[in-house]
Structures are given as structure tokens and as C-alpha cells.
Design brief:
401 residues, mainly beta
Length: 401
């Protein structure tokens, strides 16, 4: 996220002055509009975010300065024994936050009440999860359902599954819906639900695929024929564009031989919007896409303008890949100077709801690199004070506004 000359004129006569002033005003207005369209003004409100801290068994409140994007630490929840929180999901109403815990001792979901200042209070003992190895979580747009991937399955789906829970609007309590968990093929990991709430997609890293579902009234129905759809080795993070036409998946272990020697690429898919095979995926022409250098992209996101896809990798050498999105066909084209040799990470990549700031999760105590971005070029600029400390490596991050 990156970002008049004074003109001399001779006054020929009294009547020229108004015309000159009008012309200068028009030029200045045009320049102002041009700058506003390319670089964000960074005037969003101060607000909060949350990161899970798996090693500490807790969730950390973060404060985001709306004018600068700088992050400061707030209160940390008390550590709860036998919890290893990773996935986070915040209700649209911001009344409750859910943290998914996966450990050798217990698989559960912690429910936190969110106070007006953003602080968290645990709402009783964690709710037992219905599957083994719960990993990622998402809430549907209506705020009625919580969906959780179970990497190691459950008693009826030994390969892997997705549990769906209805959410009590008053207490935040969870109740599993009938027929849940739903089969999700081998080792489901990351999950997303499209903006309309019609489709759910889950990555299966071990088999390099994406499992596709339609979603209605809490029920997941796998898209057949077709699902799971082949993506690439280690299929990990995934993102859908705002129009719900294109899905992009990071494949960190995919080979690009014989054309390139680096490892990892991005698969692009067209989403079938309706009809008997609604939700089905077909590869975008030219997919998969890769950077000229850099390896192992894992987390992926689309900027708020819908113009760019960002994929992030561990380390700082050629670590942030940026592509422009073809508006009619979803084709990805490398942005100028991409990949960027800036600090990144493999845990998450997401834009602040205000659209001003871009945050990445890395496996370190300084766990969150932060950037502003240029919405015309995709270029990134480091936020002062970045990377921001979380004390220990974060798991996932949830943003509020």
C-alpha cells in the first residue's frame, strides 16, 4: 500500500484573472482526484483485531490506529488448559468471537463475549468439537452458522469433515445442525464461504484439491460431479473475488518444471454461478500462475478494490507475490516489480476492513508485518513500526471495525 508544480502565467488583462483561477482550480481538483484513486487516504477509524496464540492457549486483543495502521497490544485472555487456539471467527454483530482449539488432549471451540471496548470474556467452558483436529473457522454472512474444518475427520467421516453449528443470537452458544459433520475428503484445512453465502470451498493439502459445496440453511452439499477439484500440491490458502466469479488457491508445494525452477503457484478457477452444477470449478485459461522467483506461497487474499491478488511466502526474499486480475476472465498478470522482497509470512494475509492496510502473519514474536498499498499499482509501503509484536507466533487473525 504506497502512494504542482506552480505554474507561471502573465496577466494580460483584467478579464484573464477569473479564467486563470478557474483553470488552476480545475487542475488542482483533477490532481486531487487522481491521487485519491491511486493511494488510500488512511483516515479510517481506530478499531480492534484479534490474534490466536496457539503456544500460549490464549487470544490477544490488538488495537489498530486508523490513521497510521500501527498495531498496539491490548489485553490477552487467560490461558485455558488443553486449548491450542488457531482458527478465529468473529460474528458480524461483533458480539462473540470463536476460537478453534486443536490439541492432543481436547478438540473444542472457545466462545468469547466481546465488550464495547473489544476485551474478551470466556463464556463458560469450551464447547466440545464434533471432529478431530479442528483447524479453520468461518461464519456465514447471515451470522447464523459457524463452519469448522476437521482435519482428521470424525467417527463417521474418517478422512476429514466440516462441522456446522447454529449460533444462538443471544448467548452465542453453539448447536450442531442435523447430519453434521459433512464429509470433506482427505485432511481439509482452510475454508471460505462466498459473499452470497451460496458456496463453501475447502482445501485438501495432502491430495492437492479443493472440495466444493453448496450451502443452504446450515446444510452442506458437495458439488457433484466434479468435487474435489484438482488444484496443486499442498493446496492451502484460498480466496474468492468480490464478484464471486473467480476462486484462487495457493499451492505451496507445486512444481513449475520444466519452465521454472521455483516451487509453488496459484491456481485460478471460474465459479459456476447457477444451474445443476452450481459451485463447480473450471480452470482459468493460463492457470496455474507463478512468480518469476520466490517459493512456497501459502496464504492468499484479494485487495478491497478487487484488482489485485496477493500471495505470501515465508521469509523476506521475493516473499510477496502480487498479480492484477483480468476483469473479464480472471487471468492473473504479475504487477510491476512483483514479487516484492518485503517481510512476509505463511500464516495469514488479510486487508483491514477500512481498505487501507494489509497485514501478514509470520512465525515469530514480531508476528505481524503491516503495509499500506497503492490501489492503482499494487505496490506496498511498510507501516512505521512494522513488524508488530505479538509476543509469540500468532495462529490466525480476525479484524473488526
Amino acid at each position: 500500500m504506497s502512494f504542482l508544480r506552480a505554474a507561471r502565467a502573465a496577466l494580460a488583462g483584467k478579464n484573464c484573472l477569473p479564467r486563470i483561477l478557474v483553470a488552476v482550480a480545475v487542475i488542482l481538483a483533477g490532481l486531487s482526484l487522481s491521487c485519491g484513486n491511486s493511494t488510500h487516504s488512511n483516515t479510517g477509524p481506530n478499531h480492534n483485531a484479534y490474534v490466536s496464540l496457539p503456544a500460549r492457549g490464549s487470544v490477544l486483543l490488538l488495537h489498530i490506529n486508523g490513521a497510521t495502521g500501527a498495531i498496539s497490544k491490548g489485553a490477552e485472555t487467560p490461558q485455558v488448559q488443553d486449548t491450542t487456539p488457531r482458527g478465529l471467527a468473529l460474528l458480524p454483530s461483533k458480539k462473540f468471537l470463536y476460537a478453534v482449539n486443536s490439541s492432543t488432549h481436547a478438540n473444542s471451540i472457545s466462545i468469547f463475549s466481546v465488550a464495547s471496548d473489544g476485551t474478551l470474556t470466556l463464556s463458560g467452558p469450551p464447547t466440545p468439537a464434533s471432529g478431530s483436529g479442528p483447524n479453520a473457522a468461518v461464519i456465514d454472512p447471515s451470522g447464523k452458522y459457524l463452519l469448522v474444518t476437521n482435519t482428521f475427520g470424525d467417527p463417521k467421516n474418517v478422512a476429514g469433515s466440516v462441522s456446522v453449528y447454529s449460533i444462538d443470537a443471544g448467548s452465542g452458544a453453539l448447536s450442531e445442525v442435523p447430519n453434521s459433520p459433512f464429509f470433506a475428503n482427505t485432511g481439509p484445512s482452510e475454508i471460505l464461504i462466498t459473499p452470497s453465502g451460496k458456496f463453501v470451498y475447502v482445501t485438501n493439502p495432502g491430495i492437492g484439491t479443493v472440495t466444493a459445496f453448496t450451502f443452504s440453511n446450515g446444510v452442506l452439499t458437495e458439488v457433484k460431479p466434479g468435487s474435489p477439484f484438482t488444484s496443486g500440491a499442498g493446496a492451502s490458502g484460498l480466496v474468492v473475488d468480490g464478484s464471486e466469479r473467480f476462486l484462487y488457491v495457493a499451492n505451496p508445494l507445486a512444481s513449475n518444471l520444466p519452465l521454472q525452477t521455483n516451487t509453488g503457484n496459484i491456481s485460478g478457477f471460474n465459479i459456476q454461478p447457477d444451474g445443476p452444477n452450481a459451485g463447480a470449478l473450471t480452470p482459468i485459461l493460463g492457470s496455474p500462475f507463478t512468480a518469476t522467483v520466490g517459493n512456497n506461497p501459502t496464504a492468499i487474499t484479494v485487495d478491497p478494490s478487487g484488482r489485485f491478488v496477493y500471495a505470501v511466502t515465508p521469509g523476506s526474499s521475493f516473499s510477496i507475490w502480487c498479480f492484477s486480475i483480468g476483469p473479464t476472465n480472471g487471468l492473473l498478470t504479475a504487477a510491476t516489480n512483483s514479487p516484492f522482497s518485503l517481510g512476509a509470512g505463511e500464516l495469514f494475509a488479510l486487508f483491514d476492513p477500512s481498505g487501507n492496510y494489509f497485514y501478514i502473519g509470520s512465525q515469530s514474536g514480531n508476528g505481524i508485518p503491516g503495509y499500506t498499498y497503492n490501489s492503482s499499482t499494487g505496490a506496498l509501503t511498510v507501516i512505521s513500526g512494522s513488524p508488530f509484536s505479538t509476543g509469540t507466533a500468532p495462529g490466525k487473525m480476525a479484524l473488526s471495525e
